[in-house]
Amino acid sequence: MLIELIYFLNQKIDITPFEASIMYGGMAIDTNYFTYRTNSRTLDAASQLISMGAESDKVKFWFRQEFSKMLKMNQLISNMEIYMDRFAIVKSNEIIENRSFLAKVAENVLNIQNIEAAFVVGRLQEKEIGISARSYNNVNVQIIMEQMGGGGHMNSAATQIEESNIDIIVGTLKNILALEYKERAKNMKVILLEDIKNKGNKNDIIEITLGYGNFLIKEKKALLANDKNIKKIEKDKQLKEQQDLEHTALMNKLKKDIDNKQINLKITVGPKGKIYRKITMKQIVDEFFKEFNILINKKKIVLDSEINSLGVYKASVVLKKDITASFIINVTENKNE
What we know:
By secondary structure, the chain is α+β, with helices and mostly antiparallel strands. Helix content is about 40%, strand content about 25%.
């Protein structure tokens, strides 16, 4: 430390009370007010600075929080999760420009009784998530953060991860904590976004291991089954059911409009009634639209038999899985040609 070096120099160095207060403030921040990385030498140096005129109350005054930041901090802490009865996990989906804010939140969380380590997970950019970790002596957050690509000290560490889904990061953190502190990794519940073989169907809520759950979320095949996502899925399900009812009603009406209608196709035939040109689905669709002002999707039309001669044919229209309409095609000779 600089203050220790001063006493080994032969010449006298004058330090003003203001300068002493600045150095004292640096020590206070670096040690979280003499909580981390603090020993007898640290306290001796602080004592020397105070003897030089450093004012601890002035330092405290300098480091006061802005009202908006304090409010935001309290909002985040009020929604924190207690994991394994000893770890606090705070997360923020809003972009936090000042990364030191995460550390301040973590340090404040440690003031809560029975919390041994605090992990504040925040979005630094759209696709970058940071974690600030703080702890007391019996929890080594450096090891935890190193497993997530970061580092630091035993009681103060951090990491930054390229990822857009904050819940995946929280899930990974929980899994590491569970494995590191000898508790069996817990499962997680997810909402399937598509059918998964041997697991479930779309919109099912299933319980699976954290690792597989995080994989499905990352691959966009599942969502974390939290209250927000469950409500969204339920809302989407209700909306789809309503849309299905409306679509079914519309298809039933269309079925009534199509059923038993007849179109007449006049074609040129050769000797013995042989058709020269094949009748296309487009001809059928165009004629039906011309006669009844109803446009049918040609891909939905199924003929009972191939039209290869004059006569009456039946055509079916698959409007929906369980709704099929039918109409008649009367093929006659065009005697005007």
